[in-house]
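Example protein
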Amino acid sequence: MTRRQSNTKQEASWLWMPLIIGLIIGVTVAAMTGQWWWSTVGVLAGAAVGAIGAGKLRRKR
């Protein structure tokens, strides 16, 4: 069984969305609290959500 690759722009952009949203939320919280590490937490959380979503999407097919 061959592995399907993401060829369309829509599928590729969907994988970036949780990361971007996590970065925006993290930077916002970092600016409000004055603690820079919140931006890192936001990026890591967004990456985790994206990885889980991509894993579920792959299993569905």
Q: What stands out?
A: The chain is about 80% helix and 0% strand.
